[in-house]
Fold this sequence. Notes:
The complex is a heterodimer. By secondary structure, chain A is of the alpha+beta class. Chain A has helices at about 15-25, 55-70, 80-85; strands spanning about 1-10, 30-40, 40-50, 75-80. By secondary structure, chain B is α/β, with parallel strands linked by helices. In chain B, the strands form 2 sheets. In chain B, strands 1, 2, 3, 4, 5, 6, 7, 8, 9, 10 and 13 form an 11-stranded mixed β-sheet that branches. A two-stranded antiparallel ribbon of chain B has the order 11-12. In chain B, helix 6 (about 125-140) links the parallel strand 3 (about 110-120) and strand 4 (about 145-150).
Amino acid sequence: MKAVITVIGxxxxxxxAGVAGECAKNGANVVEVTQSVMQDMFAMIMMVDxxxxxxxxxDLADSLKKIGTEFGVQVHVTHEELFNTMYRV
Amino acid sequence: xxxxxxxxETINMIENENFDVRTITMGISLLDCIDDDIDKACTxxxxxxxxxxxxxxxxxxEISIDYGIPIIHKRISVTPIAMIESxxxxxxxxxxxxxxxxxxxxxxxxxxxxxxxxxxxxxxxGDYALIESIPEALSVTERVCSSxxxxxxxxxxxxxxxxxxxxxxxxxxxxxxxRDCIGAAKLVVFCNAPEDNPFMAxxxxxxxxxxxxxNVGVSGPGVVRAALAKAPDCDITEVANIVKKTAFxxxxxxxxxxxxxSKRLCVPFGIVDLSLAPTPAVGxxxxxxxxxxxLETCGAHGTTACLALLNDAVKKGGVMASSHVGGxxxxxxxxxxxxxxxxxxxxxxxxxxxxxxxxxxxxxxLDMIVIPGDTSAEIISGIIAxxxxxxxxxxxxxxxxxxxxxxxxxxxxxxxxxxxGGGPVMSVNYASPAKFISRGxxxxxxxxxxxx
Lengths: 89, 452
């Protein structure tokens, strides 16, 4: 089972490490990362495997959103299935 | 990996365009709660609803977190209470309303629908008593929603019921005059009422439905408007294509949520209702979609054509996205719940006559329209009869949910707050249909061939 983490906001030092660190702490394995910085806006999309996640999905999502708040960026955590459903027939 | 742009588009829809799943509605059959002792029947109903729906709200919230999609309402619809009540010796249907309200409060849902009578061809035992009790039932409860089906394409229109409902709508508003007449906002008069509609106030669990079922209502006017805004100069064919594509994506999410809710609650999946349901929030308006298509204001000449296109394209896009589509499925035009409609009504551009024409091509009918408090019961019956005739002849669902604003007149404002919104009192035609309404009887079912 995979989840997609999106981080959108002003580029800040340490945001990638912050999110990845929190994933590692909770047993979520980072599978793939794409990021782009346009001017000073930062958009990162991270695919993580949550099948061995040690905490409930809600707690993982809450802790990542909290990190987002600390860095002043918007963090979304969603099951991969949402995008597969919406964009693949 | 999934396309980056697709992911960012979805996040943008949720964050900036009010994309949400409007409701997960659990339909529960109460047929096995029938008892000739009303108190015993009430106990059975309370126990059954609490047992079946105990995890509904929690599960809805969990799905919302897992997929990052807001699920605004978790609601319940039940078997039309008139059918349960007809078995009781003591005719006091308000007891049922109170017990539904209590059960809804216990399981944490904000509305429960099914204080309903189906009398399109005539009144059966419990129908009349239930209809008579609607004003009191809606004034002493908070969460109960009521609906009455007074006509259908197969049965014609029950004009006795139409006459009665004019009075009932008025009385309901009068009994809740101290609360902005909110009772009338929870009462819908239908023609061709769907049995699997998840949206309030007209939701009930039809007799052909299974024991328990999950129906989901999607939303997303803001998403459709935003998609159209990105293509300001395309022709109308392309407009229809954009609406279809957007409706597809929206409905896929509804389907995903419905399947997931069905799996987690161990309840069969019923239908996804493809409706574009607006809210009073800025950017969540069906009127603004019509304006994005090129109208100066909703209500201008051309509005009915734009709405017809929108309604059809939403269905075409949505049908392929879900394995079972049902309910009302189309564009809603509730005036007080739509920021664009409120503005158009305030400016005088949107009138009841224009809204009536729009209802011939949209999914519901005259919805959430505030009318002057001195509108007579016969005029309300006339409005109901006209709307039912449109539904009957066109083989579609139509409904009337008008709110007589007691002690207020055209131009004043009524404010319910929350998702029910608020709106200006719209003027009605005061010429009397009293003689027509007082005749009673039934309008025969229309011919289904020789269509012109």
